[in-house]
Amino acid sequence: MENFSLDFKNTKLFKNLQNQILNGNLSHATLISSPDEMSLSCFTNLLANMLMCNKVCGECENCIKIKSNTHPDVLRYPKGKTFLVSDALDIVENAFKKPILSDIKVFIINGVDQSVAGQNKILKILEEPPKNVFFILSTTNTKTVLDTIMSRVQSYSLAPFNQEELSQILSFHNIEASKNVIAFSEGYLGKAVLLSQNLKFDEIFDFVKNIFTQLKSSKDIVSYSKQLADKENFQLELELLFFLYRQALYFINNQKTTYIDIDFASLNLNNKMISQILKHLCEAEKALYANVNLNLICDNLLLHILEEKYLWK
Ligand SMILES: [Zn+2]
Asked: The pTM is what?
């Protein structure tokens, strides 16, 4: 996969941590959080690179070896798909081995929250780390990281890009992304890259947008429900409905237009109505995980949306 690490060089968070590295006061254990896994893996990689080469020059042995994932002193975890106890044990063992190429060692631990036992195993080493060892941890949700880990790390959240930055990055990498993709990605690079590969995305977006703007009578339910009950795309359709209603809430409460081409003002939505609809969306999501018949989920969901629209108008 293409490397997007350098795209994070101008972020506020990177500049902050860069200063700390240059001043020699970066904590030995840093935790980065973002809901976007790809952003995390790019950012933690960039930070490791900065620790090894202050200029992130891209040309020295450190930079080249980091780029090709062969730097002996930058160790990335998890080794497999998720962080496991075996990774933690490996980290503890390796942390005491001297660096080979550089004078420091960097451990990148992505998705550290994925294993409670694994987190417990690295507690001690985070508390009393060997000299010249840096730990860069990441998580998609700090709430799932143990308090005992949180108290031993400096924690930062990586903000999403704004829409303009995101568009620029994508076009720099020659990735074509529609306006809808940019809007729905909400500044998260990994999400945008993934969606830009989904050739059906714009079609699905338009369909869901139709439900959002046009659903008016029980007659509509029949035709919409049939199309909505698409096994392959229902999860995405549901996420899009969540997204549009959240955008509507934002519009109502901030009187600002969003990046989507929808005339929210003309839809006569209100807070109470939307919060009820969001509840029904949550229920539909639960039903989906519980393997309830998809046609039934869709019928119910659309019926409930329609009901709330009448009830609270
Ligand atoms: Zn370099």
From this structure: 0.90
